[in-house]
Fold this sequence. Notes:
Blueprint: H1 2-17, E1 31-32, H2 34-43, E2 48-51, E3 65-66, H3 85-94, E4 102-106, H4 115-127, E5 132-136, H5 139-145, H6 174-180, E6 186-190, H7 194-197, E7 214-215, E8 222-223, E9 226-227, H8 230-240, E10 247-251, H9 257-268, E11 275-276, H10 280-284, H11 297-313
Helix pairs in contact: 4-9
Amino acid sequence: MNLMRYAFFTTALLWLLIPTGQAQPADWAPLLEPEQLNLLLQRHDDIRVLQVTGDYNAGHIDGALNAPYARFRGPANNAGQLPPLQDLQALVSELGLNISTPVVLVHQGNSASDMGAATRVYWTLKSLGLQHLAILNGGLQGWREASLLVTQTPASVQPSSFNPQWQDTWRISTATLETQINRNSLNLIDARPLAFYLGEQATAARPGTLPGADNISYETWFDGNRMKPLSELQGLFASQLPPADAAPVSFCNTGHWASINWFVMSELAGIPDTRLYAESMVEWAQQPRPMANQPGRLAHYWALTTDWLRALAGW
């Protein structure tokens, strides 16, 4: 725990010491409040704002580009899967990004879950080598609630020549996880709500969780649709996060909610070597790999039936 506290207080310094050809804007942080971002945009004209969810044409921050979340995700049957590298390279170029572009990711902000789009894109861009990344707390809804202006005028930029290469520093693959699942060398953290962890609810082919996993729901870090203030989060880090005796691995169904926990652990708490299992339970459960908290077949089908009846009744 002492290591986690030390890492948290040194995170801001480490962000300032990253070697780069372009200085990071002053007052930059991985999580920005609307008023902070507004001041940064007034002082710096090189900050790139990307809107990843919500109706871009209905209103967005002035100068923001439309960067739909789906373009950073895999196919419908395995949404957590990474797109082909060439597709990500083309997208980074299209958005005019390079290694030192300051990038702020904006989600719609209508729920805590929606922030997973911003954190997943953050993780993707970091893994592609971009060095100055941030997320707008509360998303576009938080921006509006702060009485800050939006526009319907679309923005455009010149494509960049940056050709990023993928780094697996913050990722763990299914193949690697299969070899390490029983070695006690990882802190496996299920970011899903408790019912998923217990096997009472499922969207993957089989209910349950990874063997040896603990549960820290992504909802832990939020008040409504906004992440809690850092002063509150620091207390939660000490009480909720795992001891620094093994590398944390965050997972969920498709790497969406898990990216929120990854962001909290890696970028806010500063826990080194935090990994995201991007494909998560949807891919893991497709094959007869070991799982924990699996209900009996009758209980599983009963849960599916009651979920169907709730949806039908609109509960």
